[in-house]
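I hope you will forgive my troubling you with a question about protein structure. Here, with my thanks, is the record as I have it:
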Amino acid sequence: YGASDRGYHSTSPFVFGEALRRHALVILNEMGIPVKYGHSEVGYIEACEEDPYVWEQHEIELALQPLPQAAENVVITQWVLRNLAHLSGMQCSFAPVVRKGHAGSGMHFHLSPVRNGEHLTVNDETGNLRKESKWLIGGLVQMGGVLMAFGNRDKTSFLRLSQAKEAPNAVTWGRFNRKALIRLPIVATDAEGNAVTHETIEYRLPDGSAHPQLLLAGIAQAMLLGKNTPNLDEWISRTAAEAVTDGNGKIAVPKSFAEVAEILIANAKVFTDGNVFPEHIIQRWSENLQS
């Protein structure tokens, strides 16, 4: 107990916020917001002279939902947690970094393409990425940095990525790789080896400052971009985590709001195609980033 940056799946009496987290799961369920699970995470920070607060990190993973509903569920979940913390005499922060040098807080999105009402596996029958997985991964490696406009909106967003404690600072994808921008997570199985959850593709760049509605709409547009990319296999091969090192093929994520604003304007057509994003939204968003 009390070791900074420890606490993965710790339980009471060593976790102060466990009762609050469990209460939140019950309330969310009663409100019709399905939850996959909740547990304590590694971002425990002991109090110190500069900051008298003990910080605990908790994870709540919501169940898969259609994009508009998923975005609403994120906002409502944050509202519930803030209210419960207030009633309990605690503080609740979604800041990307609550204290410099310690584990940051991301807001990862698990994505599961659906065809004819059925969730797809990541790989096809041959064991290779199926086309829908390629569309999504290929779109995200092209637009991952641009999507920071909607997914990383706090000054400490860049600090979280630069500290690189299981946070991506380069455009990569990989299986089970916690430092990749896009991860193909382990799939939980039962005693017979059958999957008990849908396979997902995890986008790990966003954090708690994200605007969920705009971010998820942008991810959908990125997948359409991937579908229409002629050299998609080249993008996927080039950004595979095992193919990327500091001196070989590294595409760094943006390091400032000004850089994000610049690439947002350069890629505006990806978002405005199909009138999904009005042009004035992209323009106003880029101006806010620049200011």
User: Anything to note?
Assistant: The CA atoms of residues 5 and 72 lie 30 Å apart. Strands lie at 35-40, 58-62, 109-111, 114-115, 118-119, 173-175, 182-184, 201-203.
